[in-house]
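Sequence in, structure out.
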Amino acid sequence: MSKCPPDAILSCDGLSKSFGAIQALSDVSFWALPGEVTALIGDNGAGKSTLVRCLVGVYEPTTGTLSMAGKANPYSTPDEARNAGIETVHQNLALIDELTVAQNLYLNREIVWRLGPFRFLNHRAMRHGAEAMLSRLSINVPSVHQRVRRLSGGQRQAISICRAVGAGAKIVIMDEPTAALGVQETANVEGLIRKLKEEKVSVILVSHNFDQVLRLADQVWVMRAGKVAGTVRAAETTGEHLVALVTGAA
């Protein structure tokens, strides 16, 4: 495998993670380049989720090092990873159904104004900010006042991605972002991922959909049995080759 490029925005070297006698990751080296879509593929149990959890500070690696923009071990918890500019869009999306679009976009980072010792939510500023965030990524929803529970699956996914970017993310990690969506909503979310790339936001995409990976990704990393089975440029591979790497036939 080639050496990690010096301009990698996120990388790990010699990463291993064990849970008692279970070795979940073994000597994994991985990197993502700035402004690219980096795909992570592999069968269930291959180590993808464990690697992502190490990358975002949920798990502490047993051995190995993490680096972000050349800085070694820049964070050790999910909050520190967020502060460093890494946001994760989970499959469950972590949206609050009874809150509005604007309230979800500003969840845990509300804009307030102060009057002496008192603090009040600045609803107007959050509304305008939410509209600007949605416009930036060309996301269409009926209104920022709409409760999230009334939105479609694709719109909810778009809101979750928008919230990550609105928080100032340099890297957005997406775990199967279109797994439960129909054809049109999948196309909309894929368009949003391309928009993030145009905005120079790095994306790490965890997916089982090889056609989607080949449409969106610049670099593809293949995991098998807790190790890196290979990495290829998406433009230089095929779905058949990816299947062979995942299964061990190549």
